[in-house]
């Protein structure tokens, strides 16, 4: 997909493709990318997020197709958070992918949760009179309130018709059930799943149903990559 906002750093192989969660932007990977130096780190704003254009419609597969061109066929490790972790698993069998690490992926979805996502997708964006209000909305949608300073938010908000909104295309909330069991079973490369110890979106028991040795990151929550970048970077250790 052309027009993606992509952040790149480093010069050493293999390439690490960093995929953020729903509502966030590639900026959340800054600490992880620094911890992975000198590896090449490529972090896009996913379609409909930050500075990247929207898609006509959202499925996990469609988002994966949009970023597939960022996979280095000579060797890529994929690290994705939550929504981005599911996207990463859709790339597991792409030429050049050596392993996929998924952080904080919600495995079980109740019908009412899926219905709420569909309702949010149909609602349209909330517009605000000030940038500050839109920043607050962006941080709330991405689960980054209290973890990222409002003054540090860049691509997460946009101005539209003289008003402000979070950059997220809310239609992305309608992607539906990720069907993780089939995704993990179908991956032909190693898959490592992890969660923060205090992540209320997914349990270790849920992850253990998919992989034999999920990783619990002590003291961390859903956005562990922002809270403790070096601990999340270390998840790639066995594959570097």
From TrEMBL:
Keywords for this protein: Hydrolase
Protein name (record): Alpha/beta hydrolase
GO molecular function annotation: monoacylglycerol lipase activity
Domain AB hydrolase-1: 16-234
A GO-annotated cellular component: membrane
Domain of life: Bacteria
Entry-linked PANTHER family: HYDROLASE, PUTATIVE (AFU_ORTHOLOGUE AFUA_2G14860)-RELATED, MONOACYLGLYCEROL LIPASE
Pfam families for this protein: Abhydrolase_6 (PF12697)
Example of a GO biological process term: acylglycerol catabolic process
């Amino acid at each position: 997909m052309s027009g993606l906002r992509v952040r790149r750093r480093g010069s050493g192989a293999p390439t690490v493709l960093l995929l953020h969660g729903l509502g966030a932007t590639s900026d959340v990977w800054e600490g992880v990318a620094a911890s992975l130096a000198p590896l090449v780190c490529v972090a896009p704003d996913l379609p409909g997020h930050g500075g990247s254009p929207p898609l006509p419609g959202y499925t996990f597969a469609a988002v994966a197709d949009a970023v597939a061109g960022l996979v280095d066929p000579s060797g890529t490790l994929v690290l994705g958070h939550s929504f981005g972790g599911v996207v990463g698993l859709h790339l597991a069998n792409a030429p050049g992918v050596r392993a996929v690490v998924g952080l904080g992926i919600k495995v079980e979805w109740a019908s009412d949760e899926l219905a709420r996502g569909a309702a949010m997708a149909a609602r349209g964006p909330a517009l605000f009179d000030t940038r500050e209000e839109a920043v607050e909305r962006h941080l709330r949608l991405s689960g980054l309130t209290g973890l990222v300073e409002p003054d540090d938010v860049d691509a997460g908000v946009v101005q539209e018709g003289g008003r402000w909104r979070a950059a997220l295309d809310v239609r992305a909330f309608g992607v539906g059930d990720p069907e993780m069991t089939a995704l993990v079973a179908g991956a032909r490369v190693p898959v490592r799943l992890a969660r923060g110890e205090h992540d209320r979106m997914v349990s270790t028991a849920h992850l253990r149903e998919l992989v034999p040795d999920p990783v619990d990151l002590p003291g961390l929550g859903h956005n562990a990559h922002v809270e403790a970048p070096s601990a999340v970077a270390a998840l790639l250790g066995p594959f570097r």
